[in-house]
Design goal:
Elements: H1 2-11, E1 17-20, H2 34-37, H3 47-58, E2 61-64, H4 68-72, E3 83-85, H5 88-96
Parallel strand pairs: 1-2, 2-3
Helix pairs in contact: 1-3
Length: about 100
């Protein structure tokens, strides 16, 4: 649902950022599980496909949880195009900044 809401925000020409944590981080790597690439109703769009479309079309900033790569023993080169590693200090400051709405799923 987070990606659907982010899509609607960016479609309204507003800025959005997406932080992928927990199971959502599975769409961050270049190679992803089949479930992340499978189309889902009602528009037959996959979670990864929707993320990629928002990155390409509206400049959505997508970050993966800072502990994800070290926990996998991997580097940033394994991340999909347009996905970076979150900096906890910067993300924390952004979440509490005046005028910012933060949603968690």
């Amino acid at each position: 649902m987070a990606k659907v809401l982010a899509f609607n925000v960016t479609a309204a020409c507003l800025e959005a950022e997406l932080l992928l944590c927990g199971l959502a981080r599975d769409i961050a790597p270049k190679g992803t599980p089949a479930s992340a690439n499978a189309g889902q109703p009602p528009r037959d769009t996959s979670p990864k496909g929707l993320m990629r479309m928002m990155v390409e079309n509206s400049g959505l900033k997508v970050q993966v949880c800072a502990i994800h790569l070290p926990a996998k023993g991997a580097g940033a080169s394994m991340l999909a195009d347009g996905v970076t590693t979150a900096a906890p200090d910067a993300m924390g400051a952004a979440i509490v900044a005046p005028g910012i709405s933060a949603m968690s799923f």
